[in-house]
Amino acid sequence: MRFGINIHRALQPYESIEKSLCFKEERTLTNNLTIQHDKVLYLIEDIEENRLLKRQRIDLHEYPDGSIELYYKDRKLNFSKLYDRVLPEVQSDIVGSNYKSGKKVEYINMLISNLREWLCSFV
């Protein structure tokens, strides 16, 4: 403040600093209703409205906390994380209930969690 006067205007109800300062990128939606961002595959909710968006350009907003939102012409799209290509989780129900397989899955998950902790120590 110069001379003790605040000349900043107040935000309007429709304005959002978070949306203004987020990282924005356009992505093309595949025929499977998926997009890839930062080595993670996301699946858009499979509803009739969204099926019309195949091969359309959508906006991806990534916020400083790492969360993302997807929009098509100011309409927010619901989505789910389908697959993380960097550190995928090994799911024991896919492997089966075999004792040896279960031990291997536990060991692999332990290695993955140790690797995550080690990678996070550099951030």
How many strand elements?
7
> What order do the SSEs take from the amino end to the carboxyl end, as H and E?
HEEEHEEEEHH
Report the span from N to C terminus.
34 Å
- Average per-residue pLDDT, rounded, comes to 80
State the low-pLDDT regions, or none: none
List the strand order in the largest sheet: 1-4-5-6
| Assembly level | single chain
Radius of gyration, CA atoms, in whole angstroms: 21 Å
Structural class: alpha+beta
SS element count, helices? 4
Structural domain tally: 2
Summarize the amount of helix as a percent range. 25-40%
Shape designation: flat
Strand content: 25-35%
Query: Could you give a short account of the major beta sheet?
Result: 4 strands, antiparallel
What would you say this structure looks like, in words?
The strands form 2 sheets. The protein has a 4-stranded antiparallel β-sheet with strand order 1-4-5-6, with no helix packed on it. The chain is built from 4 helices and 7 strands; from the N terminus they run αβββαββββαα. The chain has helices at 17-21, 48-51, 92-95, 99-120; strands at residues 23-28, 34-37, 40-44, 57-62, 68-72, 75-77, 79-84. It is of the alpha+beta class and 123 residues long. It has 2 domains: 14-85, no CATH class; 87-123. Helices cover 28% and strands 28% of the residues.
